[in-house]
Design brief:
4 domains, 642 residues, elongated, Rhomboid-like fold, 11 strands, alpha/beta
Length: 642
């Protein structure tokens, strides 16, 4: 058995509010209408039982035609008469006189009318579309009524697989029109097929079929993921991705086949066919007229593009005019809406520098450095860190300095050594001071305090056009380097280990784990044995990321290299992208899988104060190195790290 469960690509540019509202409205209507429908059905059942009981006691009476099923043949009516004769003979009661019989017939007919009055009160009759008596409003309301949970969940599953992505491509107004007109077109086809039917048409399947037809045109190469299971000797299950150009035409042909067989059965197959064709043709028209490219896409891109907060411009103007308090109030408004806005933090720092109180704004410059490291703007982050040291006489959190040193290791090894010395000479850095000292010793450096940077480094400029700090003039004796600079060393994580040869040759001990949650103090991992355990961030020394070009689908590897014990092989906890969904871990279902994966890496790196390889991986523009096999990756990348 195959059940569709998702798509191979699920990223959308905006939250699909229209699709979410349609699903919510269907659920709400099901709860409201379903409650009243159950009450009416119970009442109608009682009234029908009264009719049957009365006729059973008086089988010589004629059942009114309103009770008989519509379209009942003459032969079926004759059989019903035979049943009545048999019941009369069993009871052995003669038919009463004509006058009494007429009164009893009237009472039976009254019970039948009472039954039909109850049936007419059914909400499906009020809200559904009756082909023999189509009301204009029912064309709309019938799309949001469902007969049961299976009917509702089945429709919403198919809508979930098509609606949000069409909304993202066509925009909210056009998608809304497409959905509603597809439902109307499907209803018209059903009315044309069964013009005299009194059975109400309910359900969103006609409109959803229109979405599926449009999806076939717009996302013809998109793959639909199916869950399959079968039982042959033993129960087996799995998933498979099938292209839309295969799945949707097969579904359409199935609807045509059943529409020819079913006639006026309980499923409106012909409405499905009509809705699908309407959506298909509408999407072809949108494509041929280039409506999406000309009108929709530019508006959506304009809405989702980043625009500068007006309060930020006001703050800059006030800063240039010397109104420092007013500037800080404007920047604070920006940060209330965008807490990570680097330009607003930088503006507050600059206002304190002009006021002569840089220590009061140091926290804001630290936030700027953190954001620049996260975005991969390492040179700018270095300039701001040097400015923080000289101007505010502060160095920032040790974990931030460690990340900055690692990010500069390949592009500016001298700056990396400078920051490592700063960490190693900081008693408050704790474990990171020891790690920095070990890294310095690995390529022959000492943990002496680093010399202050040259003044030229302090005149950097932010994206917003604000000077990042006032020019600083220091006596030459303070800026001269007191030792001959060695040739640029290799990055500290690639320096040859100073352990014994046997340790260097020991292969790491790798355990594949499944990450269950990111907690404030570590990762909750489930090992191969099935047990869960907390891995403290403090035990993670390095993170290595790579892609493996496996068939049929590549995957990502995240290796957590734990602190090494004397004489023991390096322990590596391995996380595979095939074993967890990073979006659920970071609580951001709106993110793409790759962006969420980078966020997971950042959370672990920040918590552990560990370096990430390759350097700059957290920047969206950095490409992840890819290898043909896990063995090739371990030989090239993992070997030197261990």
């Amino acid at each position: 058995m195959f059940i569709p469960i998702g798509l191979d690509q699920t990223a959308v540019r905006r939250l699909p509010w229209v699709s979410i509202s349609i699903i919510a409205l269907n659920l709400l209507m099901f709860v409201v209408v379903g409650t009243s429908a159950r009450d009416v059905e119970q009442q109608a059942s009682r009234r029908a039982q009264e009719v049957i009981d009365y006729w059973t006691r008086h089988p010589y009476l004629k059942l009114p035609d309103e009770v008989l099923p519509p379209g009942m043949s003459h032969s079926e009516r004759d059989q019903l008469k035979l049943v009545a004769e048999a019941m009369r003979s069993v009871q052995g009661r003669p038919a009463p006189e004509t006058e009494d019989r007429a009164e009893e017939q009237k009472e039976l007919e009254a019970l039948v009318r009472h039954l039909h009055e109850g049936v007419a009160e059914h909400p499906f009759k009020s809200w559904g579309l009756v082909p023999s008596d189509p009301k204009p409003l029912a064309f709309l309301t019938s799309m949001f009524i469902h007969t049961g949970w299976m009917h509702l969940l089945g429709n919403m599953l198919f809508f979930y697989l098509s609606g949000p992505f069409l909304e993202d491509a066509y925009g909210r107004p056009l998608f809304s029109v497409l959905y509603l007109t597809s439902g109307v077109a499907a209803a018209l086809v059903h009315i044309a097929s069964f013009p005299h039917s009194d059975a109400p048409l309910v359900g969103a399947s006609g409109a959803i079929a229109g979405c599926m037809g449009a999806f076939l045109v717009r996302f013809v190469r998109r793959k639909i993921r199916f869950l399959y299971f079968y039982f042959i000797v033993m129960f087996r299950t799995g998933t498979v991705d099938l292209p839309a150009w295969v799945v949707l035409p097969l579904w359409f042909l199935e609807q045509i086949f059943f529409a020819g067989l079913a006639g006026s059965s309980g499923v409106a197959y012909r409405a499905h066919v009509g809705g699908f064709l309407f959506g298909f043709v509408a999407a072809l028209a949108i494509k041929q007229l280039r409506i999406e490219e000309k009108y929709i896409a530019p508006k959506i891109e304009k809405q989702i593009s980043v625009s500068q907060n007006p309060a930020l411009e006001d703050g800059m103007d006030l800063l240039l005019k010397g109104d420092l308090e007013g500037a800080r109030r404007s920047f604070a408004k920006v940060l209330a809406a965008e807490p990570r806005n680097a330009d607003a933090h930088l503006g507050i720092w600059q206002s304190h520098c002009q006021e002569g109180t840089p220590e009061a704004g140091a926290e804001h410059l630290v936030r700027v450095i953190d954001e620049e490291v996260r975005r991969g703007e390492h040179a700018l982050a270095l300039d701001h860190w040097r400015e923080l040291v000289v101007t505010a006489h502060e160095t920032g959190p040790a974990a931030l300095r460690w990340r900055l040193a690692g990010s500069l290791a390949t592009s500016d090894s001298r700056a990396s050594v400078e920051i490592l010395r700063n960490i190693a000479s900081d008693p408050a850095a704790g474990l990171l001071a020891e790690k920095a000292a070990r890294q310095l010793a690995a390529f022959g450096e000492t943990a002496l305090p680093s010399a202050p940077p040259p003044p030229a480094a302090f005149g950097s400029t932010s994206k917003a056009g604000l000077a990042a700090g006032p020019p600083v003039s220091l006596p030459p004796a303070q800026i001269e380097v007191s030792f001959a600079p060695p040739p640029p060393p290799p990055p500290f994580w690639e320096a040859p280990p100073r352990d014994s040869p046997s340790d260097a040759e020991t292969r790491p001990k790798i355990e594949i784990c499944e990450v269950e949650a990111l907690q404030p103090d570590g990762l909750l991992l489930r090992g191969a044995g099935g047990g869960s355990d907390l891995l403290p961030y403090a035990e993670v020394e390095k993170l290595v990321v790579a892609g493996i070009a496996a068939k049929p689908k590549p995957f990502l590897v995240l290796d957590l290299l734990l602190a090494r014990s004397e004489g023991q092989p390096r322990r590596v906890e391995r996380l595979l992208s095939t074993e967890f969904d990073p979006r659920h871990l970071v609580g951001r279902l709106d993110m793409s899988g790759l962006d969420a994966f980078r966020e997971v890496v950042k959370v672990i790196a920040d918590g552990a104060g560990a370096q990430v390889f390759p350097s700059g991986l957290l920047a969206p523009s950095t490409r992840i190195p890819t290898f043909e096999t896990l063995d090739a990756y371990e030989r090239v990348e993992l070997g030197p790290r261990c």
